[in-house]
Amino acid sequence: MPALPTDSPFLCAASVEAWDAWFRWRDAKRLHDVSIEDTWQRIATALAAAEPHAGRVRWLNRFVEDMAQWRVLPDERLYQLGTGTLALRSGPLHATLNAACFVSRPGTPSAFSDYGAVARSAGLALRLLDDALLLVGRTDTHVRIGIMGIADALALLGLDYASAAACDTARRFAEALDEGCRQANHELAMARGATASLRGETPLTVTRRYPSPAVRRSGVPHRWRYRSITAIDSQRRLALLANDVSDALDPLPAGRRSHRIDAPGGARLVLSPGYAATVLQHSAPIAADPAAAGDSAVWQAQLRLRAALQPQIDKPIDYPLALAASPTADLRQQVEALARQMAVATPRWPLMLAARSSAQQPTHPS
Predict the structure, then answer these.
(1) Residue 305 — left, alpha, or beta (φ > 0 → left; ψ -120 to 50 → alpha)?
(2) What is the crossing angle of helices 164-192 and 115-136, to 10°?
(3) Is 274 helix (H, G, I), strand (E, B) or coil?
């Protein structure tokens, strides 16, 4: 593939391949999405149709802005919006925030994460999913908003993936995610109606569901729009689309990554250095190596990150760990024992990178 234009939102050719295979709208007669900007505009225009007319342009622009900054990645199925072939018959809708794109001044001693922006984007992601459900006439009480690119964010901040500082930073991302979702959950319930009741809920659930003690004391929010919102799971194809950030809470692999992309024209193998490595090669060097998470104790670091985030996440974080090879029986026992000790969910088996391969059937609009 030719070199990417300097003004392209894509940093690596592998992401262009992913967009072209899975998310780009084309049919037998026409290539509708000439650029990724066309894809974002198409999705946002369709979603904004669910908004009141007076605020439609405002929300359309906000949806486009967050997608264009790679901060919010909608459910893969929503890339069919505007094509006339959208199918959302079952299963909770997903959206994912990309932690790496909330880091400012990456690769410098003054690098920092904008947690306020994380909260705002989390709220926007919930509204985006709510609009999608309104469009298809579904009344759900559960959605799933998660996060990816944590390892890239840590590398851009100069933090070791296995460090205590990494756990603290990841926890702050989760707190901002939760805060934004709770606030938007309340606002949507007040504006569009509640769909779930607090009856039978524990005080802890009530505390996490609403944005402040003042709101809880007001007597109004004894109902909310969604019963559960946050969930972290593997979103491998969306991670590759977003300039190949790390999937969910996974560490960065050493060296270049290989992705197999199955598309109508046949399978393709594409290589990528990954998002953090691409960004850092244009910045001042920092102490942390963006691919330094490949030591023998990396699975322990993954569990520690899950333990740091889980208190702020509605669903158990139990997607498969990222390991380079199939686990032995002894390793499984060690993982399960440490998971119990940390009070986190036992990861689903098998614990193999291959279990989250990008080689899946394409879902791009056709």
Answers:
(1) alpha
(2) 40
(3) coil
Token pair of 186 as six digits = 């309340």
Q: How many CA atoms lie within 13 A of 272 on its CB side?
A: 30
pTM for the model? 0.87
Helix (H, G, I), strand (E, B) or coil at 19: helix
Query: Can you say whether residue 13 is alpha, beta or left, with left for phi > 0 and alpha for psi between -120 and 50 degrees?
Result: alpha
In tens, the pLDDT along 73-115 reads 999 999 999 998 877 777 899 999 999 999 999 999 999 999 9
- CA nearest 17: which of 2, 32, 38, 7? 2
Query: What are the domain boundaries of the chain?
Result: 13-356
Q: Which pair of tokens denotes residue 67?
A: 């997608």
Could you give the angle at which helices 36-48 and 56-68 cross, rounded to 10 degrees? 150
- Which residue do the tokens 């001042």 mark? 284
Please say whether the beta carbons of 309 and 170 come within 8 A: yes
